[in-house]
Amino acid sequence: MKTSAIPTHPLPLTAEQAEAMEQRHIKKHHIAIMLLHWFNAMVWGLELMTGLALVSSPHFRVVPMWFLELVEGLFGPRSNLLRAHLTVGMVWIVVFLAYGLFGGKTYLTKEVLQKEIALDRDDFQWLRIRVLGILGRSKEPLPPQGIYNAGQKLFALMVYAMLPIIMLTGLIMAFHLFGTAAVGWAVLIHFVTVGVVVCGLIVHVYMGAVFPEEKPAFFSMITGTVNELFAYSHHFKWWREVKLEDEIWLHQRRSSEDAVPPARGGSDPGQNTVG
Amino acid sequence: MTRYAMVTDLRKCVACQACTASCNAEWEVPAGLSRTQIRKTPIKGTFPKLVAGTLVAQCAHCDDAPCVPACPSAATSKDAKGIVQVNRDVCIGCGFCVEACPYEARFINPVIKKVDKCDFCSPRLERGQLPACVTTCPANAKFFGDLDDRNSEVFRMVFSEGASRRDTPEIAVGPNVYYLGKREQVDLVMASYPPRPPKLPVAGVLWERAAKPLVIGAVAMTFLGQAAAFFQQLRIGEKEHED
Question: Do A57 and B98 touch (CB under 8 A)?
């Protein structure tokens, strides 16, 4: 293959280049992932609301009484509240199990996780500069990022660590597994792990929906695509990967067109790149 | 207002367990467990001046019941008639109330996996019947009634005859189960079975003392941090991509 013209690190763009790139869109999320994301968001909204209202003891309550009364007003008697919490939670667990079962081979492979979740040296740099930048303390350029930036990776790591615990403690409480003492501890652990996720969630919602520079990332969860300029400036490593794949695909298509006749049983040129 | 109370006359009780049996039958309590407990004190004194007594224990439906705040989900609450009720549709069987009870009146029912205890036979009361233990007692040693009714038997026993209840200066949560008898007999029973201090299990203590402030603190700090970032964003103004 001829040497690629794709830059190895982000170069300054001319205004025309930037404008052209802004018009082109790159696919970022599969429709299944978008649906899962919004389903998950809905579940968290419902479960947080009902869960917070379920904890009513003065020893443990974390929300004011009026909030409890408000939620009880929405759901009726407290038994409905618990039933709603358990039902939504069970649906959530089933959907995520299905995701693991059917999407696991695509989204939860070692390669994907390494690329999308594991933090590298650039990521730690990025975190430092990003935080200082938001506080107005740094003007350094951010290091190039993969398909997800270090903040998104950290959030994903935390969520992947907490989700099984939240689900397991929820099941322990719902079905009184492993005895009474286990249920008592499960209540505590459920509360703490959810608290940890909520901290991340606040940052996640702010960065996703409010922070101006990440707005295309928010819309990518609705449209599934981001414009190329955003990919270039925020997720350079990923942009480069996409470009290289396109190039390989083009190259292979061109060479397969040249070859007469195409080798039977040979590899399909599109197979490795599209999908 | 109604304030139900139970009085046991220790002079009549012979620890025959009829109350326990009828209670277990009425409420289908699994074998080996019971909502009522009969405990006999050792015999004290020297012949011929001997004293012995029987503790007839059940949920005391305390005025200031420690099990109510211990319940994370408010499955346990005091109703309008002073009965401490358990809403089984809300109970998750965490056992916090079991440890909170000074009278060991609560247990986790292994069949339903929720907490179980005496509710003064509330469904029977609604039908106009007395609690099963009261109607069954062959010696007629148990009395049930309303302490707010000045004409009731229990009012007379508690306020005129001076029935005692199991509390100490430290642990006085207002139990509504009283004991009547010879002074030395009642004293022996009260001294033999003092209430235990209400407490939360370790998970509950950690929740209240550590997890709650930490989680509230962390969430508040994160929120304030993001709020600060938001105001910074407003101050700087939104810039379109410049690079």
Answer: no
Range of the domain at B238: 201-243
Task: Give the separation between CA A47 and CA A89, rounded to whole angstroms.
Answer: 7
Beta bridge partners of A27: A225
Distance CA B222, CA A151 (A): 14
For position A261, what pLDDT does the model report? 53
Helices (H), chain A: 15-23, 31-54, 65-75, 78-98, 104-107, 110-116, 121-134, 150-175, 179-205, 215-223, 228-234, 236-258
Q: Is residue A268 part of a domain?
A: no
Chain A nearest-CA distance from B137, in A, is 33
Contact B229 A198 (CB under 8 A): no
Task: Judge: A82–B89 Cβ closer than 8 Å, yes or no.
Answer: yes
Residue A244 lies in a domain: yes
Domains contained in chain A, number: 2
Mutation site, B85, B206, B212, interface A, largest A CB count within 10 A? B212
Q: From residue B45, how far is each of A89, A274, B49 by CA, in Å? A: 62, 94, 6
pLDDT of residue A270: 42
Inter-chain touch A173–B94, beta carbons under 8 Å? yes
pLDDT in tens, B143-174: 999 999 999 999 999 999 989 999 888 888 99
pLDDT tens sequence across B176-207: 999 999 998 999 999 999 999 999 999 999 99
Residue B137 to residue B139: CA distance in whole angstroms: 5
Provide the residue range defining the domain that includes A240: 15-29+109-250
Domain count, chain B: 2
B112 lies within 8 A of chain A by CB? no
Query: What is the pTM for the complete model shown?
Result: 0.85
Residues A185, A218: one domain? yes
Which one is predicted more confidently, A18 or A125?
A125
Name the residue in chain A with its Cα closest to that of B223.
Answer: A202
Asked if residue B113 has pLDDT above 80, the reply is yes
B76 chain-A contacts, CB cut-off 8 A: none
Alpha helices per DSSP H over B65-181 = 67-70, 96-100, 122-126, 132-136, 153-159
Query: In this predicted complex, what is the ipTM?
Result: 0.87
Same domain assignment for residues A24 and A35: no
Chain A nearest-CA distance from B188, in A, is 34
Same domain flag for B232 and B152: no
